[in-house]
Design brief:
7 strands, alpha/beta, 262 residues
Length: 262
């Protein structure tokens, strides 16, 4: 068992973030499990898990981010994200902008704040939870996919910069595939809030819905265990690698697509 660490996880109110928080606490780590809402924080507290301190931290809020400023964090898990879907041909740009605001800009702002303490203490790990669609283009998911491409690039660049500082701080990226947490369904449905008679794809909407249902039914895993294991591994590693992905078969599929240049 690795030495106990103080871990801050964003987006821990549900899905992968919540499951990771519970697993890390069970392994003896002190976990600051932060959520988007007070209701989610209360639900986490109600579980009575030892080692978890849950509180609201909307990463887009200056005042919420300040709540983490006094914490001595060994590992930051940047998991909070929002999803938007739709065609780049006609998606409202404000929806793309808002997705970047949360998934990239707010994430980087919080990371800079936590990194300052890590660099001063000469110890720490930053984890960016990206996505396998941050490595391969995903038509009709590009508002989300583009933010994950950017986040993966940020992780790789930050890792090299931290190595040059020789400050004892490392950065890794974890790339989940499709897991049945409800996030994918909500993201896929978001485009139908605006894709209607005015969309260039109006005649394709019924076929798109059928294809999405079939694809999610085929790909989504019911258990988050495989990706939680990856995040735990990075959290406890002294010298983690740059990239970790799960499930392995989806990661392999992405690698094949990239090699084929499709």
């Amino acid at each position: 068992m690795a030495a106990s660490r103080q871990v801050l996880i964003t987006g821990a109110g549900s899905g992968i973030g919540r499951d990771t928080a519970l697993r890390l606490a069970k392994r003896g780590h002190t976990v600051y499990a932060t959520t988007h809402s007070e209701e989610q924080a209360a639900a986490l507290k109600s579980l009575g898990a030892r080692g978890i301190e849950a509180f609201k931290l909307d990463i887009t809020s200056d005042s919420d981010r300040f709540r983490a400023s006094g914490l001595s964090i060994d590992v930051l898990v940047n998991n909070a994200a929002v999803g938007q879907s739709g065609s780049l041909v006609d998606v409202p740009i404000e929806r793309v902008r808002q997705t970047f605001e949360t998934n990239l800009f707010a994430t980087l702002t919080l990371t800079q704040m936590i990194l300052a303490g890590m660099i001063e203490r000469r110890h720490g790990t930053v984890i960016f939870v990206s996505s396998l669609v941050g490595r391969v283009a995903a038509p009709f998911l590009m508002p989300y996919s583009m933010t994950k491409f950017a986040l993966s690039a940020a992780a790789a660049g930050l890792r090299q910069e931290l190595a040059e500082l020789d400050c004892g701080v490392c950065c890794s990226v974890v790339e989940p595939g499709a897991y049945h947490t409800g996030f994918n369904q909500k993201m896929a449905a978001s485009k139908y809030e605006w894709m209607g008679a005015q969309s260039f794809f109006r005649d394709r909407i019924p076929a798109l819905k059928v294809r999405e249902r079939r694809l999610l039914a085929l790909l989504e895993l019911r258990s988050t265990r495989s990706i939680v294991r990856r995040i735990v591994k990075v959290t406890e590693a002294e010298k983690p690698r740059l990239r970790y992905s799960a499930p392995w078969w989806q990661a392999l599929g992405v690698r094949v697509i990239r090699m084929a240049g499709k």
